Amino acid sequence: MAIALLLSAIIWNLGTWYLGLPVSSTHTLIGSITGIGIANSVINSFSSTNSYWWDGINWLKMQEILISLVISPLLGFGGAAILFLIAKSLIRKEELYAAPEENVPSLWIRTVLILTCSGVSFAHGSNDGQKGMGLMMLILVAILPSFFSLNLQTSPQVIAQLVASSNSAIPVLSSQFIVNTNQDLSLINSRDELSQFLKPQGQVNENIWRSLVVESQIIAEKLSINNNLLDIAESDRRQVRDDIYLVASTISKLEKQQQLANFEHPEIITNYRHQLDQLTKFVPYWIKITIALALGLGTMIGWKRVVVTVGEKIGKEHLNYAQGASAELITMTTISAADYFGLPVSTTHILSSGIAGSMVANRSGVQIDTLKSLLLAWLLTLPSCILLGFSTYSLGLLLI
Question: Quick check: pTM over 0.85?
Answer without folding.
Answer: no
